[in-house]
Design a protein that fits this description.
Elements (H helix, E strand, L loop, with lengths): L1 H18 L5 H14 L5 E10 L10 E9 L4 E5 L7 E8 L7 E7 L7 E6 L2 E6 L3 E3 L1
Organism: Hyphomonas adhaerens
Protein name: Lipoprotein
């Protein structure tokens, strides 16, 4: 009985080892290099604006901060917030992809209080644009 239990435990552990995905840095690294080479270069930003829409609306739509970029690119791009602490500003990362109109990039979020003094736009670790004025539309 002990031998059967030991054998069953051994088979179960061996089965887990076979199903466990074995990946190492050598297996992952070439994919990362290929992804970096396939990604388009960071576009030039031709216009960067940010505003808060506080116009009266029907219903109780929340106030939103809107960031818009015009970029010199035929590819689609999107922005997402970086998880980096910033004392007085917002940091957005520009990334290729998602369904968007080429040449125009938009980001929306609930309007923070207080409004950011500066919005930094980053692409692959470098700042490519900064917005110093957030317009409040009333």
């Amino acid at each position: 009985m002990r031998a059967a239990a030991a054998l069953a435990s051994f088979v179960a552990l061996a089965g887990c080892q076979c199903l466990w995905s074995h990946t190492s840095d050598e297996q992952i690294e070439p994919d990362r290099v290929a992804d970096a080479e396939a990604a388009p270069a960071c576009p030039a930003v031709t216009s960067a604006k940010a505003w808060v829409n506080r116009m009266p609306t029907i219903g109780s739509e929340p106030t939103r901060l809107i960031v818009m970029l015009d970029v010199d690119s035929k590819n689609s791009w999107f922005m997402s917030p970086l998880d980096m602490p910033s004392a007085t500003g917002l940091i957005l990362e520009l990334k290729p992809g998602k369904a968007a109109v080429p040449g125009t990039v938009a980001y929306r979020q609930m309007a923070p209080a207080p409004l950011p003094d500066r919005i930094r736009i980053m692409c692959r670790g470098s700042e490519i644009a900064a917005i110093h004025d957030v317009t409040v539309v009333r």
